[in-house]
Amino acid sequence: MLISISHARLSESHKDVLAASCSANEAVAIVFSGDGVYSLQPNENIIEKCLSISTEETTECDLRFYAVAEDVFSRGVNVDQNLTQITNQELAALAAAHKQWVTL
Prior knowledge:
Layout: E1 2-5, H1 12-22, E2 27-32, H2 46-56, E3 62-68, H3 69-75, E4 83-86, H4 88-97, E5 101-103
Parallel strand pairs: 1-2, 1-5, 2-3, 3-4
Helix pairs in contact: 1-2
């Protein structure tokens, strides 16, 4: 599953979707792009929350975090060590590799 986050602020329902996907028993790629990179700010703790949910669950989830490097750089956001910065071409490859998409 590919979850694309392009909004700076995530609603409670968006966070619920993230929590549910973090406990899924499948590969999940969470991609921050556009203004979505602002949700990577330390006060949001999005990555930490997802990682804690996935480790609490009995299922093993292949959870990976990505951010479009151009968007991170242009917005001056500091990124977490658990996040991989990717190009738009790599984003296209991720999109092609995942059949299920969720956009937040």
